[in-house]
Design goal:
about 325 residues, alpha/beta, 12 helices
């Protein structure tokens, strides 16, 4: 469901592509950039998207030779900040750094003030991160098979907390229910923090969300970690098994992060920004900075990112339709 090029393979290709790029797009870009670039994050500071954005921005500015300034414009499930970018000049100086929620916003919300696909130009997908499944610490069920068996037998006693409708946590919970034949009650919350508090207190039993957000409380025992949703164990939680290892083969789901520009941004500038982002990711992989926050770096061309978006939207639409979800 999710794939990326291996670092070794990409580095071999990047030497050739960088040599070609130097004589083409870099030359065509002229003096771009010759002023600071604004990177809009449509969520609050300190979250997973913001953390990834700041790591990428710091590395990109060293390659572009200008400041890349992260600006948080939170609100309305990410649409406020995204609208700022959609209305900005198409010159490459205002970028959106967001997550998978951006491209499916029209599937989960009735009033999105833009088209997340046609009003934005994909620049680069930079990373992905698994989700973590946690349960209330006072439950006797600690393993995935135990949790699923108990939830099937007593569905009235099992509630899944949803930090946000349409977010990766919501889609992953729907996929879990689909693959394991569960009929969970799903309770929406206004963010990860209140959902996590209720699971810790036993008011809800299950929570699937970004490993970056949940691992601190899981490590302190305030919630019990069950499995990750990655194909392999996470570098920041190597002791936590994957769902595939734990009796639910094929349950792989990741949140992902990417960069967009306003539509009609010149292609030479898009290509230059893509190269800078890929070089930034390579350094973040090499230094271990991404692994330290649970992110797997991704190197993709602009075209590959566009195809990934199309595939992700199609799969998300199918999942929401099968669950009978109606946009709000």
């Amino acid at each position: 469901m999710r794939s990326n090029l291996g670092l070794a393979k990409w580095m071999g290709l990047s030497v050739l592509s960088l040599g070609l790029f130097t004589g083409t797009a870099w030359g065509q870009a002229g003096k771009f950039p010759d002023q600071p670039i604004k990177m809009i994050v449509p969520f609050a500071p300190g979250g997973g998207v913001d953390t990834a954005a700041r790591l990428v921005a710091r590395q990109m500015q060293g390659r572009l030779g200008v400041s890349v300034v992260v600006e948080n414009r939170a609100g309305a499930n990410g649409t406020i900040g995204s609208k700022v970018v959609q209305g900005a000049p198409a010159d490459g100086y205002t970028l959106l750094f967001s997550a998978a929620t951006h491209v499916i916003s029209h599937l989960v919300m009735n009033k999105v003030p833009y088209d997340p696909i046609t009003d934005f130009a994909p620049v680069a997908r930079v990373g992905e991160a698994p989700l973590l499944l946690v349960v209330s610490p006072n439950l006797p069920q600690k393993k995935l098979t135990e949790v699923l068996d108990a939830a099937r037998q007593h569905p009235d006693k099992w509630t899944a907390a949803l930090p946000a409708m349409g977010a990766p946590s919501h889609l992953a919970t729907l996929l879990l229910a689909q693959k394991s034949n569960l009929k969970l009650t799903m309770a929406p919350y206004k963010g990860t923090s209140p959902a996590l508090v209720d699971v810790a207190g036993g008011h809800a039993q299950i929570l699937l969300d970004s490993i970056i957000s949940l691992i601190p409380m899981a490590k302190t025992g305030k919630v019990h970690p069950v499995v990750t949703t990655s194909a392999r164990r996470s570098a920041i939680a190597p002791d936590i098994p994957t769902a595939s290892e734990s009796g639910l083969p094929g349950f792989v789901f990741v949140s992902w992060y990417g960069l967009w520009a306003p539509k009609d941004t010149p292609q030479d500038r898009i290509q230059l920004l893509n190269t800078a982002a890929n070089e930034a990711v390579t350094e973040l992989i090499k230094s271990g900075a991404f692994a330290a926050v649970g992110i797997d770096g991704v190197n993709e061309t602009v075209a590959q990112f566009g195809r990934y978006i199309a595939n992700d939207v199609a799969q998300s639409a199918d999942l929401l339709k099968s669950a009978g979800f109606k946009p709000e």
